[in-house]
Here is the input.
Amino acid sequence: MNRKSFRGEIFLYFIIVFILFTIAILSFQYQREKKYRTAQLENTLDNITEITRRFIELNNLIGNNEITRISELTTLIPQPNIRITVININGKVLYDSFVDDYFTMENHLYRPEIHKSISDQKGSNIRHSETTDEDYFYYAKKYPDYFIRTAVVYDVRIKNFLKAERAFIFFIITIFSLIGTILYFVTGKMAIAITKLKDFSINAGKDELVRPDTTFPENELGIIGSQIIRIYNKLKKAKDDLTNEKEKLFNHLNALNEGIAFFSCDKKETLSNRHFLRYINIISQKPAISTEEIFQMEEFKQLNKFLRKYLRSKVLINPENLPQLGYIFSSGEKFFKIQSIVFIDKSFEVMVTDITRLEKRRLMKQQLTSNIAHELKTPLASIKGYLETILNNWPVPADKQKYFLEKTYLQSERLNDLINDVSLLNNIEDAGELFKFSTIDLKSVIEEVYENFANRMNEKNITFSSSVKKGLKIQGNESLLFSIFQNLVENSINYGGNNISISVQIYRDDDKYYYFSYTDTGTGISEEHLPRIFERFYRADHGRTREAGGTGLGLAIVKNAIQLLKGEISVRNNPGKGIEFLFSLAKK
Here is the structure.
């Protein structure tokens, strides 16, 4: 069967569509049955877990320190090779039916199935056990005071149980073969009629008419045929040239960040780029599917008023001074510049530019200037006050002089910290290219931060721990990485209180990022303040912040530094006590 024939093409398309449909059905059914069998196995293990829990609770095994009695239960379970493990809420193994010296087993809190059950109440995982040197299908369930984990040896029997039945695959293939055979004969009958139509079109049209080198007999038909070819070729060339120019213009418009549309004098669209409709949908309260709906939108009433004035038939337009309009419109947190030009034929152009970033930066710098001025007043007023006290009460006893000079020095240090933080924040936001990136050993950075604050931590009885190992490399800037951990640790020391603990952990990583958790067990932050703590000069507690000497820029520096290092950061209160920052840093 010729691939280029109609019969060959339609048969091929039918086969391709049916193959894709068959593959989709087979994949769906296979995954569905596999999930069903996995759910069956999890249900069996869940029942064993519940039986174990009831056995523990009815006999108060943990309270009576008789946890080993679970071995009595394992002899009653009909399923073979069932492993039962009891783990307390802190991850310590209280009992394991497959391990005699279970009390020496390492902490299980971060086992995948246990970690998942903390958030979802239950979790499962297939992995290798280092303790028993066997593969298991694990199932864990969280209870108020402990976890119960059941597992079955992941052997050939379990693997075969989890595999989906393949009878359905052979059934679909059989149906596919049958339908393919039917299609072959049906397309054969259709091809007869199509072939007759093809022969008619060849005899009637004769493709030679579109060939410029075609010769015709010297008669009226020859003259007509030659003129048709000449006119056709001219029209085709003009159309191709116009299409190329239009394509160039359209590609240029799409390359711009502005939304641009051209309209005729009766407000019909003649050309627009992809940004235009998207921008007017952002601005308008109701969605638009056509660019022409802009003329009915309340948000563009200023534009429409301008157009009504100049699109009237009696209004004359000066070609040397075309009417133009430009104004700024805000929609939520977005800012747009609306511009329009009316041409001499009363067609017109509308351009919508997203200036949110520029406008927000202008407002941000305005606010930053105001905040800086406000923040500078306090240390300057204090310095001035202390110096005036010394000058107006001279001579001042030596001990009083020292007291006032120390206070003045502390305020000058605070002023210096504020200036340094503002400078660092501006460099991160406006001149990020100034920071040179290289491969950094993160452990050395964290150790340097710890050494800087070791004395203050000892004074407040603060413990510090980190799971970051030597050799963990980050592609970044050492100064920025140091600022991130320095500001986080300093925040915990200043506001967390005494007798707390600070922890830096890596909770996962992938091909591109390391994911970190920074936690402290301090006083935490009220939920209503959490969405704003990364803002410049935002203070959850003004009095407490000033007493601690903070500039109000620490967490803003942390967020901007992490973003410059291609990461992200979020914050939440710990369920128990304290606060947790979750952030990512790029490996490359």
